[in-house]
TrEMBL record:
Name used for this protein in its record: Cytochrome C
One Gene Ontology term of the molecular function aspect: oxidoreductase activity
Keywords attached to this entry: Signal
Signal sequence residues: 1-25
Source organism, top-level taxon: Bacteria
Transmembrane segments: none
Length: 771
């Protein structure tokens, strides 16, 4: 209470100080404020937010530019105007400097945080800022860490108030407190900044190059820095990373005459994108919400869910050619091919699909994106939603499910129905508030889904785009027997284990990007160096920006230069395994590091080296929600008859068995010996690798590589499950006896049978046998 009173007083004094000194000056006609240069720039927002900003503005600064950006609008030249005016704002919580990007989390308590209390602290502790899970997973694959403890981050930070979240319903806080107590490794109390590498240690400990790899390559997407600033990666920092629109080309298209429209690295327009009520009109189009392409500017590596949700996947070719005969433009530093968008995102006008068009934010909650005040160590620790929160199950509506359904973590749930919410927590009321109808649906962890309501016999999702969608509810489909595919009815209703132990997307993720082999060279020779995103984020200037904010500079650098490539890419149906919640899930290649390290003297310390983990070598496969959902699921055969799905490798792992030996493409004799003396190795060996990179279990030896580095339940499908699933011999039960005319005449008929006729014939044969 005292904190609220103090904050109210500070805001009152802030407004008073901002207003009073300039009434007289404005009347003299000597001051014209920021618009004397930036005339034509658009108001950042409309409605209450603009009113709040202008209420705090100076009389000659009618748009309130200085409320967010600080600076000194009394100055006559650019340098002084952008130098700030601290003597007017001392100790009042306002802007004491000029802030080019007010969204930076390092100064946002003086800008965005003036009105949006608590968000800045939560974002700093969230995965958007710390990237704790990414660090733990990467260093696990390099053999640097050997447990599930996520205790490293992009910067030092501590959760001073303990494991109870500082926002959320009482049910949510109780749920999360218990979860954190059960999994302290995944919910750390504090994080330490991952340290730099002493290059003198590399000859004796070459796997420390994994830290350089993380610092230079993997940590560039967190919201504390500006990032790569290349095509597709242009964005703001902090709050602006999501809430300010940036085009793929990074070019400004607004009316501010001071911003060069030919130089990339700029916001598209000076507008805020947020929820349905924040509408933006530009280029003849009006939109609301945060386009999924904004999310993709960061989420294009690792799990690659951004491109996948949009329906594209990286590939090496850059085809088809452009009209001038060149390759496509590089996006996020890669080329892409189109596969198929997630059904939740498919655009109706293009796909003819009336239930597409959702944005990332329509499913992912404010806590998913901003955090709840705790420090999550993995994505699973922060994300609070499950598919069943909206779709339910064939036997229960979403509101009939208990809290925690879908993320049991190997435990048992209370049978009590979660019900519906009839009011929203305070932190959710700053967004668009929708009429509750019969009530708001609840997330698996107990918070209302403020945009998802029960309306009679319908579940309605209000998209931030302005569109409303009816959710396919499984129990409703089951009760009315309106299954569009008979196999769906069998899978969901006749086989209990499917619903009890599988993620919905284990079947409904129709594809996943599978990037096998991450060949990495870290070269410390000849003073080679590259951008160090950890060094950048820990060197914030008074203006809130990190050194990398200067276009093309990459800011601070550290020793070593990383290069990487792949072995091969796949997109078809992924391998299945077990995730941290204990459910069957798709897997995709994670950090499958195959490393070559060169020390400062130019000596190759290790060549094509694999590092060990407690579960096997570090060719990690990660449990994932691929964000490639299709209405029709993958075929039954794609799981039960495909050894790759079960973890045995493509075609049962029969390929690439000689990958641990050098391959010569030159002339050879009858015994396979190379004839020319000057022959060179065509394909370098990976000495410790004796199997295809898609193989995670051996039929005799069991698990042979790491599967999931974050949670104890994660791993390959257990042998008993694999044995039950594998049905490759089913067809041969009959077809191996085609030479037996007496048998074959009983179960077959002349001519070709299509699939439907074949199924009917098999069913009749079984029924005849039973009778």
């Amino acid at each position: 209470m005292f904190q609220l009173i103090d904050r109210a007083m500070r805001c009152f004094l802030f407004i008073l100080i901002l207003s009073l000194p300039y009434v007289h000056a404005s009347n003299t006609g000597q001051l014209t404020g920021c618009l004397s240069c930036h005339e034509g720039i658009a108001d950042f927002s409309e409605g209450p937010m603009t009113l709040a900003i202008t209420a705090m503005s100076k009389t000659f600064d009618k748009q309130g530019c200085t409320v967010c950006h600080g600076g000194d609008p009394t100055a006559k030249d650019k340098e002084k105007a952008h130098a700030g005016s601290p003597e007017l704002l001392v100790e009042l919580g306002g802007a004491q400097h000029f802030y080019p990007d007010p969204g930076s989390i390092w100064i946002a308590d003086k800008t965005c945080g003036l009105c949006h209390a608590g968000y800045v602290d939560r974002v700093k502790k969230s995965l958007m800022g710390t990237e704790a899970g990414k660090l733990q997973g990467n260093l696990w694959s390099w053999g640097i860490v050997n447990d599930h403890n996520s205790n490293l981050g992009n910067y030092d930070i501590k959760d001073e108030d303990g494991p109870v979240p500082n926002i959320g319903t009482p049910a949510y806080k109780k749920y999360m407190t218990r979860l954190a107590e059960q999994h302290p490794d995944q919910f750390p109390i504090e994080l330490s900044q991952v340290q730099d590498v002493n290059v003198d240690d590399i000859p004796d400990h070459p796997n420390l190059a994994g830290i350089t790899y993380s610092r230079q390559q993997c940590q560039r997407c967190h919201v504390g820095v500006s990032g790569s600033q290349r095509r597709g990666d242009f964005r703001g920092t902090g709050c602006s990373s999501c809430h300010v629109p940036y085009g793929v080309e990074g070019l400004y298209e607004g009316e501010d005459p001071t911003i060069d429209k030919t130089v990339p690295g700029k916001l598209l327009v000076h507008k805020m994108q947020a929820t349905r009520k924040s509408k933006i009109t530009h280029n003849g189009l009006t939109w609301s919400g945060i386009p999924s392409e904004t999310c993709r500017s960061c989420h294009n590596r690792g799990k690659r869910v951004g491109p996948s949700f949009n329906g594209i996947m990286e590939f090496p070719y850059g085809s088809p050619y452009t009209p001038t005969g060149g390759k496509q433009e590089s996006l996020h530093g890669k080329y892409y091919t189109e596969i198929e968008a997630d059904v939740h995102h498919q655009i109706p006008s293009r796909e003819g699909n009336p239930s597409g068009g959702l944005l990332c934010q329509d499913c992912h909650t404010s806590i998913d994106m901003h955090g709840d005040g705790n420090i999550p160590g993995t994505t699973l620790a922060q994300v609070e939603i499950e598919c069943s929160d909206c779709h339910g199950t064939p036997s229960q509506f979403p509101w009939e499910l208990p809290l925690g359904y879908g993320e049991e973590f190997g435990g048992k749930l209370d049978d009590k129905a979660r019900g519906l919410a009839h009011k929203l927590p305070k932190f959710m009321k700053v967004a668009t508030v929708y009429e509750k109808r019969d009530g708001y649906l609840l997330s698996a962890r107990g918070n209302p889904l403020g945009n998802v309501v029960k309306d009679g016999d319908k579940v309605v999702v209000h998209s931030a785009t302005g569109l409303d969608f009816n959710v396919p509810v499984l129990k409703q489909i089951a009760d009315t027997d309106t299954w569009k595919d008979p196999s769906a009815k069998v899978a969901k209703m006749a086989i209990d284990k499917h619903m009890e132990g599988m993620e919905c997307y284990a079947c409904h993720a129709n594809w996943a990007p599978q990037c096998y082999g991450c060949h990495i060279t870290v070269d410390y020779s000849e003073g080679k160096q590259d951008a160090d995103w950890i060094a950048n984020v820990n060197s914030v200037g008074k203006d809130g920006l990190t050194p990398d904010a200067v276009l093309g500079s990459k800011g601070l650098k550290s020793a070593g230069k990383v290069s990487e490539t792949r072995s091969y890419l796949r997109w078809e149906t992924p391998i299945l395994g077990i995730n941290g919640e204990g459910r069957v899930t798709p897997l995709m290649p994670g950090c499958q590091v195959i490393t070559t390290v060169i020390d400062k003297d130019g000596n190759t310390v290790v060549h094509n080296k694999l590092w060990g983990t407690p579960e096997g070598n570090g060719l990690d496969h990660s449990p994932v929600q691929p964000h490639t959902i299709g209405r029709k699921s993958r075929d039954c055969e794609s799981c039960h008859s495909d050894p790759k799905t079960l973890g045995y490798g493509i075609s049962d792992g029969e390929y690439m068995s000689n990958i641990n030996k050098p391959y010569y493409a030159d002339l050879k004799d009858a015994q396979g010996k190379v004839i020319p003396k000057e022959a060179k190795v065509q394909i370098q060996p990976i000495p410790e690798l004796e199997h295809d990179l898609s193989k995670i279990v051996d039929r005799e030896e069991g698990q042979i590589v790491s599967v999931g580095s974050h949670w104890p339940l994660a791993g390959p499908l257990p042998k008993e499950m694999r044995d039950k699933m594998e049905r490759s011999g089913t067809c041969l039960g009959c077809h191996s006896k085609q030479q037996d005319e007496e048998f074959w005449n009983k179960v077959s008929q002349p001519g070709f049978l299509n699939n439907e006729q074949h199924q009917k014939a098999v069913q009749e044969a079984i029924e005849a046998k039973v009778k």
